[in-house]
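Complex record, two chains
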Amino acid sequence: MRRLWPGALALLLLASVIAGALGALVSAAPSIELGGLADDLYLRRVVVFTFWQALLSAALSTGLAIPVARALARREDLPGRSWLLKLVSLPLVVPSIVAVFGIVAVYGRSGWLNDFVSFLGAPRWEGLYGLSGILIAHVFFNLPLAVRLLLPLWSAVPGETWRLVAQLGMRSGAIWRLIEWPLLRQALPGVAGLVFMLCFTSFAVVLTLGGGPAASTVEVAIYQALRFDFDPGRAVFLALLELLSCALLVGLGQRFVMAMPSEITPGRAHARPDLKGWLGRGADLLLIGAITVFVALPLAAVAVSGVAGPVGKVLSDDLFWSCALRSLVIALCAAPLALAIGWSLLGMCARLRLAHARPGWADGVELSGSLVIVVPPIVLGTGFFILLSPHVDVYAAGPPLVVLVNALMGVPYVLRVLGPLHRQMSARYERLSENLGLRGLSRLRLVEARLLRRPLGLALGLCAALSVGDLGVIALFGTRDNATLPLLLYQKMASYRMDEAAVIALLLIVMCLGIFATIERAVGGRS
Amino acid sequence: MTLRFPFRHSPKDRKEETMRITGKSLALAAISAFAIEASALTVYTYSSFTADWGPGPAIEQSFEAECGCDMEFVGLDDGVSLLTRLRLEGERSKADIVLGLDTNLTAEAEATGLLAPHGVDLSHLQLPVAWEDPTFVPFDYGWFAFVYNRENLESPPASLEALVSAPESRKIIVQDPRTSTPGLGLLLWLRKLYGDGAGDAWHALQPRILTVTKGWSEAYGLFLEGEAPLVLSYTTSPAYHRIAEDDDRYEAAVFEEGHYLQVEVAAKLRGAPNPELADRFLAFVVSEGFQQHIPTGNWMFPVIALSGGLPEGFSQPLAPEQTLSFASREVFDHRQQWIDDWLQAMSR
């Protein structure tokens, strides 16, 4: 098993983090009684609801993402397209509470939508709180993610294919059936799986917009078990339940991945031939317009209340700047770490598939890399605390741990952004590189980094922005002047300072956008 | 990771912080000492208490001046996390004092066996209930209440009964008792008034509940956005808007049946590394030097009569006969059952 070690090391890290946290919790449990869980009617209902809302959210988000991504792929020359793509990445990285308030400001009982329909004299819509609210929020978070993950697939279609398509006179329908759908099938199960896992473990969004305890997720039960009840055994049981459910479902989804045969081509550019028709153009623009409005409205609501807040007061506060700097440093450490871990796993997958002919193992590796996202932050944080507090000063250990946790949470995104393209690349170039004796860093420099430069930029930018917006585990360790920007935002909210929180939310969004754009440009190059 | 990033700094070094941000003294920052000094009094509290805008910094300053010592606040999420932290650290805890538990948690905190008797004379306290607890020193209190905006609600409910039987279109926002202190407060409030009929009361209330949020912040934020005319908060919430924002539109609805009380307490750890300092601090907690920062710092009522009285525009305390509460022990014994009943009633 030569040259599998970087991936194996990454796997070991992931496994020991999850097992370490869960094991520590078990060790701290005074007693483990799980007898009551099986006949807990409420819990059973919660499990069913958790699955149901996550399935619906994943289906809606990925289903709607396909036409939107296709429209964006077809209109490469659209003015402002690159900024549009950055805009649609934002919902993913803003703290969920910020997004929830944006959504409420648009769709809520006294939101813009209702102002608008009242103006038209139509009946007001009061149905936000309930499953509809949960779905709107989850689609808001995940539809743009799915779009960004699916979009790079189109750029992997070689120009020769388009020339052939043009020569054969294929129409849009045939292109979709023969080129685009098989291409998407490689990535769809992974994307849907990631969205499913994100929605499965959704917590504050579900509680805030769900309307009551009937709409609640297993994550809430875990939180309850680790707080008021302090029943770590129960928390571990529920966390394992989450892990196994997601592993099963997402693993099942991977069975539907269909590998595309690929061949080495010179990759000459050639535009796709079906862009001229006015109907297709109109439909594309309509879809792009719809997604822009859907994503931009809640963000605009956040911006409006931010601009209306005490901007000067926040900007002149040292605390704001130190928190922002700390968040930035954490992000700049976490993102490369996430990329390194994800890249090692992908390399391992490629070798397992090609050199060892073990595609099943490769799928398993990819899946285990994603599963960490299902472990609730409170479980990770509490577990780490139990492990570390006897040995080190937890406040000093806190920031490196935040970096580690944020990095691990970024790994699934790295895998999804780079996975399908990495697979195509290795199918094309693995043997050639082997024959040329290109290995390790020189292969990375001469082959991989060149071919995957743009998705690498996307992955790194995404991870950094995610880390900036993530509340993560810092709050659990306790703060002694070591807050991050999202934590500062929460703390302001927790003490009536909603106006300052609104300003911080706006600045946080600007910061995420700035980091994302800078890294994507610096690493990925100009489009 | 051995690199020192600007994650932490001594709280007193604000000036140094600024310099570091401007990038002039990274080296200086790197060598400044970060370790807890052995002699520093360590107080675990919740983060909004120790925040820059909370009462913590001023209290720290006055106590340090008084004792000629060094003290340090460690901010955790909220009151419940304090209890969790105690349980996780057990005998090893470096804390001297835990400050910010409330009366619904004291029996559980006591049961950990980690806390020591306080020995502080509490005879001068002015609380709406008698206080004889040998372990916990109260540092502030307040009543849960539904807060409304006068411009949006002309006739607020005058009783909990009226709230429960109001038209279904008049929505309220409450918090989840599994995740939030006010949420648990409302659960106990209804339990106190309706006893075993609390489940039915919740069931009757349910169509009026717009949503049940994870914490106070989400609920209050939704209320300020105008999503519902009433939100579960504290009787003192309007004082914040009046004093800090100069906005007198907000009021707390006073209910005939009375209001559920929350008393926040501090206690000393049995294994406190600095037991004498801890004793001095607990005595300081019920003195003017600490209490004067409570009303406009923590937006709760002080436990002693302040020499200057309550600040201009602050809420007036309710009378003792308007006060509802359970003994901490009762909450400890029944909380799980009552929450389960609540879940049943709310998802019927």
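Note: The mean pLDDT of chain A is 85.
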